[in-house]
Amino acid sequence: MSHRSYRNADEHTPLINGESASSAQAGNHTQHQPKTGLRTFLLDTQYTPGNDSESIAVRGAAYTWHVTKVTLLSGYVNFLLVMVPIGIVAGALNWNPTAVFTINFFAIIPLAAVLSFATEMLASKLGQAMGGLLNATFGNAVELIVSIVALKDGQIVVVQSSMLGSILSNLLLVMGMCFLFGGLVHRGTNGDGREQSFSAAVAQTTCSLMTLSSASLVIPAALYAVLSQNGSQDKNSSILILSRGTAIVLLLLYVMYLVFQLRTHSNLFDEETQQEGDAEEEASIGPVAAAIVLVVVTVLVAICAEYLVGSIDDIVESANISKAFIGLILIPIVGNAAEHVTAVVVALRDKMDLAMAVAIGSSIQIALGVTPFLVIVGWIIGQPMSLHFETFQTVAFAVSVLVVTYTVQDGKSNYLEGAMLLGLYLIIAVAFYATPSDAFDGSFAQLLGNSS
């Protein structure tokens, strides 16, 4: 337990016995002696010996170690952090591309978890409005960093697939697992089954936004098909103009959604905020320390992402799998692992509002925030990133949004609905795995060649 219990263990009062304040402090320090062992130094996230030292140097070193310790012990997946230096060395020394990809793949998973932890710590100190904005900004930081690195490298297929994959993994995989496992645990008795419930108003609002985002992909695909039939020579530039204009509109809508959620209609989201507040925070770090952790981890993610993306072409050639599959299935697992676990755990505790906030909220961030932002970034750096996804990808996304909307519109869920969402995700995953490695490359190469 915390060192406060040691402070209260002795009823000896120094002032009554004529002792000075410094003697009292010495007494308190003595009472902390049981907590100065190696186990306390390495594993106690509440107290680190040296934090109460009179020496600034000792105090600084102790606090630095305390922040490091709390960060390292913030999640079970952090044992994979040993892969970070190995992954950086592997990339720097040009190891086998498969090894570089695999090691950095596993290195980014715990970095995403630490990034999420630092964001939560910083957000909790800034109040609800600023905290919510910070969470919205950094919630998908890993996907954003990986995608910017891939975009700079001209891997537009990977970028588009990873954006679509992040949305589908949240809508189908995460929500499906929440509904399935939460529904099984809270299914009631045979013949008298029960369903888990969540805010139908929030679900309807977010599903409406997801439907809008699917329309933003369907329209460019439809225009491209029409222009192709007519033999238009300027179809690629037309698609880029449409995509960039649409991206600006989507970003404006995303800002309006943030204002709606955090300010004007925050009452609709009160229940999930309340439940978030119910979660016990056993250990925390200060805002400055959290900001430093955020910066350091972001840099490490960028380095690992650089090596990960750089090995994709060789992986595609040697393993004969498509870039679309890597982007759709593998990269979202890297960025969303921590969120996936969080959503399922709170669903098992019957806190479905919070589970839905994690799953659908993250999808909206990607669809209305990150993807349009990447279109603008591509515009700035001269890469033809557009909202014209392949027809197959667009159809998969539109169908998924349709199924999810029908599933959540009543504000209730059960394990059968979870199984259906997981089933659809598996069907889409198998379809992309079966896709030849060069199937989606043609139109993007053409788009790249015809754009200036």
TrEMBL record:
One of its GO terms (biological process) is intracellular calcium ion homeostasis. Residues 19-34 have a biased composition (Polar residues). It is a multi-pass membrane protein. Pfam families: Na_Ca_ex. It comes from the Eukaryota. Residues 98-262, 291-433 form the Sodium/calcium exchanger membrane region domain. Gene3D superfamilies: NCX, central ion-binding region. One of its GO terms (molecular function) is calcium:proton antiporter activity. The chain crosses the membrane at residues 73-93, 99-118, 130-151, 163-185, 206-227, 239-260, 288-312, 324-348, 355-381, 387-408, 415-434. One of its GO terms (cellular component) is fungal-type vacuole membrane. Belongs to the Ca(2+):cation antiporter (CaCA) (TC 2.A.19) family. Has a role in promoting intracellular calcium ion sequestration via the exchange of calcium ions for hydrogen ions across the vacuolar membrane. Involved also in manganese ion homeostasis via its uptake into the vacuole. PANTHER family: VACUOLAR CALCIUM ION TRANSPORTER (PTHR31503). This is Vacuolar calcium ion transporter. It comes from Metarhizium acridum (strain CQMa 102).
